[in-house]
Design a protein that fits this description.
Layout lengths: L6 E9 L5 E10 L1 H43 L10 H25 L7 E4 H18 L3 E6 L3 E4 L1 H19 L7 E9 L2 E7 L28 H11 L3 E6 L5 E8 L5
Helix pairs in contact: 1-2, 3-4, 4-5
């Protein structure tokens, strides 16, 4: 599946002798790069506003949560009646889990600091694949890397985080189906850009949810914070790229990342 192209049309009339119309000239202009640039700027601004508005609230929430968790840790579990102990355990577990959610959100909200350098993207995707390959093979599946991955400009740590999230998301999606997980990471040069597709044979993403999956806290999973793909989008947009969801030939999801190639020095 490909992204739509945007065309601008300029129509100029042609006149014959005595001012009689004899035809028109139609000039078609490819506006796709300008539309994509506007979309990137809109996303960057939107992500910055989300971080600015909510980071302060999250800090205050985390402080209160830390107080509750601290008092819960001070309670001597052995001094409580047996029937009360599961309640204390539940408080400790939930405050700990909520603390992780808030920490993850604060990491998402803070501005990304990019340390630009030439990146061997094949090494990045191979490391991401290695993280889940053992899990895939244990379930009778495989993680395959195919295509070309030229050098790009970017931040090695951030790109590793983004592709690790995408590959882990793919293997988790395959857990929802009964078959063996098959993950394909495909790289393809398209003009001045590199498109990397992470495809799986899971249940896929409903068309109505494909735009929403990149929103903070939106998730189709029973468990999870809903920040993984939001963080991926933030990292990709910071690298002047874009990410979108489509269907894979295997019937599952295809998360496609487009990044600009490194300019010749």
């Amino acid at each position: 599946e490909h992204l739509p192209a945007y065309l601008g049309v300029t129509v100029s009339p042609l006149s014959a002798e005595h001012g009689q119309p004899s035809g028109v000239i139609c000039l078609f202009t490819d506006l796709t790069p300008f539309i994509e640039m506007e979309e990137q700027l809109r996303l960057k601004q939107s992500l910055a506003e989300v971080g600015e508005l909510t980071a302060g609230i999250a800090h205050e929430f985390r402080n209160g949560l830390a107080t509750i968790h601290g008092y819960a840790r001070l309670v001597d579990r052995s001094a409580l009646p047996e029937s009360f102990r599961p309640h204390l355990d539940g408080i400790r577990q939930e405050t700990g889990a909520l603390g992780e959610v808030v920490t993850n959100f604060l990491n998402f909200a803070k501005p990304a600091q990019v340390a630009w350098s030439p990146i061997d993207l094949r090494a990045v995707v191979e490391r991401a694949a290695d993280e889940v390959r053992g899990d895939a093979r244990a379930r009778g599946g495989e993680v395959t890397i195919r295509g070309e991955f030229p050098v790009i400009e970017g931040d090695d740590v951030l790109l590793r985080q983004a592709f690790s999230n995408l590959v882990r998301n793919a293997i988790e999606a395959c857990g929802e189906s009964a078959g063996a997980p098959e993950i394909l990471i495909d790289g393809r040069v398209e003009g001045a850009n590199l498109r990397v597709s992470i495809e799986d044979n899971g249940p896929g993403i409903p068309v109505a949810a494909r735009e929403r999956i990149f929103r903070p806290f939106f998730t189709t999973k029973g468990r999870g914070t809903g920040l993984g793909l939001s963080l991926v989008q933030k990292i990709v947009v910071t690298h002047n790229g874009r990410v979108h969801a489509a269907s894979s030939p295997a019937g599952g999801a295809s998360l496609q990342v487009t990044l600009p190639l490194a300019k010749p020095r």
